[in-house]
Amino acid sequence: MDIDTEDFEDEEGEIDEARLEVHLKDKLDDYIERYVNDVLADPVEYLEDIYGDEAIKKALEWGGIGYEKAADEAVNIDGPGHFLSGYDGEIRELPSGGVYWRTN
What pLDDT shows up at residue 1? Predict the structure, then answer.
């Protein structure tokens, strides 16, 4: 942590432990703040480091979003084509009442 203990010696050459402790606490607080800010800059990356492929699932669980609820909401907003790769964003109806969608 790049600390020179000579900076904390009193006149007799003894280390002033109280001053050193305050300094160490400040340094540690600064380190923790930088670390937390780095983690919060990309929390998914942090979770991926811990949980791998399960990171998004954990984030959704902790955030109070269930898969079924999220899927239902996506279908309600965008229709069943939402989950298709290349979905062009429009659902078309057939004369029979069926539906279809195109891909890009």
Answer: 62
pTM for the whole structure:
0.44
* Total Cβ atoms within 10 A of residue 81: 19
Instruction: Supply the DSSP string of the chain, one letter for each residue.
Output: ----GGGGB-TTS-B-HHHHHHHHHHHHHHHHHHHHHHHHHSHHHHHHHHHGGGHHHHHHHHTT--HHHHHHHHHHHH-GGGGSTTEEEEEEE-TTS-EEEEE-
The position carrying tokens 């990356």 is 45
* CA–CA separation, 75 and 79 (whole Å): 4
Is the Cβ–Cβ distance between 88 and 100 less than 8 Å? no
pLDDT band at residue 44 using 50, 70 and 90 as cut-offs: confident
Winning range, highest mean pLDDT, from 17-26, 57-66, 94-103: 17-26
Q: Residue 92 pairs with which residues in a beta bridge?
A: 100
